[in-house]
Amino acid sequence: MAELQSVERALEALLKDVKAGDVERIDCEAAAGRVLAEPVTARLDVPPADNSAMDGYALRHVDAGQWLPISQRIVAGHAPESLTPGTCVRIFTGGEIPPGADTVVMQERVEARVEAQDAQAHIPGDITLGDNVRRRGRDVEAGTPLLEAGTRLEAAALGHLAGQGITQVDVYRRPRVALLSTGDEIVDPSQSLAPGQIHNSNRPMLSRLLERFGAELVMREHVPDDFATTQRLLREAAERADIIITTGGVSVGEEDHVKHALESLGQLDLWQLAMRPGKPLALGRVGEARLVGLPGNPVSCFVGAWVYLRPLIGAFLACPRMATLPRLWARAAFTTHTQARRHYMRVRLEFTPEGVVAHAFADQNSAVLSSCLEADALAVVPEHTTLNEGGRVECLWLTD
């Protein structure tokens, strides 16, 4: 029996010599989910001037504790006049602090009155210098690093760019992926099933995950059990894609068209891994394209996508946060025992005052896709381990 290889060794082989793709400049409005190729430096202070953190009254702190005339009214977006000493100004959230003022008191603590058309406000004496003033550059200072290369542009990062008036950014080109489903037994969901056939659940599942990971899906094909057709589709995939992903049909000891076609076109290494699910894995090259052959069982595909495809796409995007999944420790709400293979169990995390609890789905078989429906983590149980209920288990959080 061939020696089982570790997940870490397979990842090392998978990621060897991977280089980031080309760089392209795109509009920020189309940049959601993309990865920065160049660092961005702040152009502007944010906020651009001292402003009020709330609705209230701006004044000199030394004038607190008395009635003050209200000398002006300031709303956000309008430049103020200098504060007349011995007065206060009515100011609203986001309004620019007038020159001469140094403190804002919230309106709920102020008594206002109008006498003979003169508005006045009584300012309490127990206020702190600088209260409720958001200082210029508190969030971002011009000339400082705004975003690092390798940053994935999600909501906050896009907001940061917009706040600087930046409309275009340099990003890495998304890796192009060809997804090939193999075997005559696999048919499209729109087709009726003949005896021995099953619908292709892996293709839509992997398509969505690849999209989430940041790849561009350029080819989705069914590969029948025919050598010439298999060879042609693999050659076409290599011409169009950076990564070829196959599901099913490539496993140690199998004598099928996919294996022979791959060997005729490029390099193929077959692995048996000390993991469950997902024992078989194929890694190789077809021309310049990298190939990853996942097992046909849907749960093996699901787990393999998170463990192998996510870091591979992250390497093409030079995105450090995608190199590994976030890890956390949880209390197991289940009991299990492993033998020679590390088990990646589908679990639902519960966050309680006492800590995180991992609830395992009852049926962990690699063909039971329903175990992935509400799973938000993979509980990693090492080889030759008995994990009892209440024990600590490390979990991989399934997040982009």
Automatic annotation (TrEMBL):
InterPro entries tied to this protein: MoaB/Mog-like_dom_sf, MoaB/Mog_dom, MoCF_biosynth_CS, MoeA-like, MoeA_C_domain_IV, MoeA_C_domain_IV_sf, MoeA_linker/N, MoeA_linker/N_sf
Pathways involved: Cofactor biosynthesis; molybdopterin biosynthesis
PROSITE patterns: MOCF_BIOSYNTHESIS_2
Pfam families, sorted: MoCF_biosynth, MoeA_C, MoeA_N
UniProt keyword annotations, A-Z: Magnesium, Metal-binding, Molybdenum, Molybdenum cofactor biosynthesis, Transferase
Metal-binding found in the keyword field: yes
Catalysed reaction equations from the record: adenylyl-molybdopterin + molybdate = Mo-molybdopterin + AMP + H(+)
Cofactors that this protein relies on: Mg(2+)
MoaB/Mog domain mapped to chain residues: 178-315
Enzyme's top EC category: transferase
Keyword Transferase: yes
E.C. numbers: 2.10.1.1
NCBIfam families tied to this protein: Glp_gephyrin, molyb_syn
Family the entry assigns: Belongs to the MoeA family.
Main function: Catalyzes the insertion of molybdate into adenylated molybdopterin with the concomitant release of AMP.
Protein name (database record): Molybdopterin molybdenumtransferase
Source organism of the structure: Chromohalobacter beijerinckii
